[in-house]
Design brief:
The protein has one domain. Helix content is 36%, strand content 16%. It has two helices and two strands. A two-stranded parallel sheet has the order 1-2. Helix 1 links the parallel strand 1 and strand 2.
Amino acid sequence: MSLINVISLSGGKVSTAMAIFALEEHGRDACRFVFADTGNEHEASRRVRH
């Protein structure tokens, strides 16, 4: 069983830094990223790039 790390992204500097750290520490295959739209985010935070 492999470990999956779930990282919450808000679009801010701290969550972005943690995402980079998680990728460097654990690799892309072991990381999943989530964003919870509460309706209070700035419009730019909701734009998703695939």
